[in-house]
Amino acid sequence: MTLTGNMVIGQSGGPTTVINQSLVGAILAAREASAITGILGARHGIAGIMNEDFIDLTTQSHETLERLAATPAAGLGSVRLKPGKAECERVFEVFKKHNVRYFFYIGGNDSAETAHIIAEMAKAADYDFCTIHIPKTIDNDLKVTDHCPGFASAAKFVALAFMGDDRDNAALSGIKINVVMGRDAGFLTAASALARQDESDGPHLIYVPERTFDIARFQADVKAVVAKYGRCVVAVSEGITNAAGEPVMTTGERDSHGNLQLSGSGALGDFLAGKVKEAFAGESVRVRADTFGYLQRSFPGVVSSVDAEEARMVGQHAVQHAVANGEPGSVAIRRVSNAPYASECFITPLASVAREATQLKDAYINDAGNHVTQAWLDYLAPLVGELPQMGKLF
Amino acid sequence: MTLTGNMVIGQSGGPTTVINQSLVGAILAAREASAITGILGARHGIAGIMNEDFIDLTTQSHETLERLAATPAAGLGSVRLKPGKAECERVFEVFKKHNVRYFFYIGGNDSAETAHIIAEMAKAADYDFCTIHIPKTIDNDLKVTDHCPGFASAAKFVALAFMGDDRDNAALSGIKINVVMGRDAGFLTAASALARQDESDGPHLIYVPERTFDIARFQADVKAVVAKYGRCVVAVSEGITNAAGEPVMTTGERDSHGNLQLSGSGALGDFLAGKVKEAFAGESVRVRADTFGYLQRSFPGVVSSVDAEEARMVGQHAVQHAVANGEPGSVAIRRVSNAPYASECFITPLASVAREATQLKDAYINDAGNHVTQAWLDYLAPLVGELPQMGKLF
């Protein structure tokens, strides 16, 4: 039984450089589906639905859509809102009013949870309705899926950034600390390892939230690398925590999901730079810290082609599955082959990805807890694709 | 009279993404010049000369050199060292010992000064010798030349960064402050204006060191933009100063040129974000700050083709001039035509570029001192080249 009616699509959470690929993939698939009578884009996700702030997505030219697909950040506008019961009821009311039979929500695990709540409400009300969550996150922390659309492009940015910064550090020796996004998971920070093309290349040390961050240990690690190479490049996740499980540094501000603000501040980098200076007390060392910030999720032109294609594919698959099958779920990616790389989509229950998140596997982190393993590079490299080879004279 | 002997080439100061183009341009031109008997690369500039730490640059394959040319940061290693009289005497002693008749120094105004001192010493000692300064700086603050190799690529990075970040800010509204490199000159910060493709696009406010930064005025500016667009993207130079001429924020650390450390810290961004929160006291606003840091001068793959070609050209011209003419000087660029863009090299006396630096012309800054003018965009756009068009739904 195929549902006939309108569809609503929205985007939620932190943008990525390929989230609009998923939007365009879904729009183009919906235009092909006769069961979908109208395509409504919700401005700023759930907030737009509650306000009935919709854009008609049936009329844009292919040229407009393709330009949008290649543009970073959520073209419909995004939102950080974890709706409560009252908000979900309002959403559901709007859906009924507009004869919405399909809802596609592009986002991370919080968005999957929103989709799940709405799907459960529809079931309870016996309203024929299909909700699909379309995955997106630079954090790569969704369960079930092999990896998340948006991650590989952010990983490419981080790898390139470290590649250039390592050459900079080799030219003007010193200790350089780069703070990478990743609240609870070190996937993006670990991607910095792709920058290494020779044994002596940075990042020489990588710290992820999956391992307790010990300041004395960090200081000793840096001193050992400097003793060996005369310089040191460090990748550190913004979300590193101490033995008590508290963030090493935070501004204390929280977003509406209750998450502590870690980005948008140079505090952690400055703090760690200070600790390195302490460790080298009396010696003349050059220590600098950069915090990559939002560039990691929004810089145009640095997109992994695998990521762009898969982001398009998950959007398309969501619509095709909804129309053909009607069961709610979340789109996930299965890696079919690593060389040559190939992948396919499948649907997993909303409950299996809602709310909870994953972290880097133990097998991806070295025993010392200060770098990654070859298994991690094997997992990551095909997703990011080719990187430039740095030229060196010595 | 053509001098016959060895040449030394070195790189100095903060790296750029095209500084190795200049190095390779000079090497290839030197290989063609019969008067140049040997090509010595000094590791880490003046420091390498004093230590006789040279690399033979006569043997590398074209493939190695072309790969190097496309690699960010100084391939020979760089240095931040303003040599005193004793150091210059040592350099001169090494040059005599190795029969060095040509010295090419790639760097900014401090490097031009070093080259100038050495040229004067050679003249006083009646040693037949030619020193050429090859310009390089992302700051674009060298005198005489129309613009500096390295600047346009950094400008392209900044423009792209603002382009993506503005889409991010449009998706998740708030106030976003991005701190851009530029100690005394606002060229790079002003380049953020190239990101604007529509009236409502950011950066909505641009603050450069050429104008006194007044916190109350800044707060009022941000409030006015938020009232109009519901959001605000701000570009601010790391080197902004208050009415007393003091940096608004600094770590207090100085480099060996006596310059205060401004980069490698998120302090200014965090401080300004705090000031914005103060201005909106009581209201719920999302304020974030990023400090772009070293990525601006080292990110691989974001290179202006005009910049890459001109960086190659100035290196080549330096050698060709030295061999043909023998007079010391600094290579400068003259803009021959703006549409289509064309430029040529000429030689200016070392004294004309040594030490002193330039700033943004008054005609490039708007009357309110919080944005740029069309004249600035006309100057900048041909140097940076084509930028992607952002796709929008509304």
Cα shape of chain A: elongated
Give the oligomeric state of the chains in this entry, treating copies of one chain as homo and distinct chains as hetero. Answer: homodimer
Element pattern of chain A in H and E: EHEHEHHEHEHEHEHEHEHHEEH
Strand content of chain A: 15-25%
Count the domains of chain A: 2
Please tally the helical runs of chain A, counting DSSP H or I stretches of 4 or more residues: 12
Instruction: Report mean pLDDT of chain A, rounded to a whole number.
Output: 94
Largest interface (CB < 8 Å): A-B, 70 and 70 residues
CATH architecture assignment name of the largest domain in chain A? 3-Layer(aba) Sandwich
Unreliable runs of chain A = none
How widely separated are the two ends of chain A? 67 Å
Strand order of the largest sheet of chain A: 3-2-1-4-5-10-11
Reading off the top of the CATH hierarchy, the class of the largest domain in chain A is best stated as Alpha Beta
Main sheet makeup of chain A: 7 strands, mixed
Give the CATH topology of the largest domain in chain A: Rossmann fold
Number of strands of chain A: 11
Radius of gyration of chain A: 22 Å
State the helical fraction of chain A. 25-40%
**Structural class by sheet pairing and helices of chain A:** alpha/beta
